[in-house]
């Protein structure tokens, strides 16, 4: 097969991509070979298709650490900085680079590492928006709970002018601050479920 790939001008990537992309690359090579056998002409090489796919990877998902419930898609992660942050750091989280993680402290002195997202599937449990002690000036807040198990996973924030009693969730101008210790990535969760080679048949 390598000989057939080389005759078509296909080559393996020079750098080692993640395993999923490596497998995808090889599958695409086979597809190109099969198409070229049938059509005798291919408009895109496997390398071109591979690089197109690799530029827009499948998003990771943010899950509730308590129950595994889906909370957010990593495409919605945004960097909303708080002037109240004790520590700020850029981290790679949920398959995304340069996600701002902030250490915030509430009035009781309890500290939380949080990151922000423009959309989440958490819910508030019948409380009003609070204006006091907001980490983000100009925004009111509510507690945010996992819709599956009810665990506290963070806060939702809404601009003061639109934080009305009839609004239960943030508008497009609002956002969510999720507690890093209360969530887990779907990729990491799946890696815990993989059966070791020793136990496979």
From TrEMBL:
Residue ranges constituting the CULT domain according to the UniProt record: 59-187
Pfam families membership: Yippee-Mis18
Gene that encodes the chain: LOC107223950
TM spans (from-to): 20-38
Organism lineage: Eukaryota, Metazoa, Ecdysozoa, Arthropoda, Hexapoda
InterPro entries registered for this protein in UniProt: CULT (IPR034750), Yippee/Mis18/Cereblon (IPR004910)
Keyword Zinc: yes
Keywords, comma-separated and alphabetical: Membrane, Metal-binding, Transmembrane, Transmembrane helix, Zinc
GO molecular function: metal ion binding
Name of the protein in question: Uncharacterized protein LOC107223950
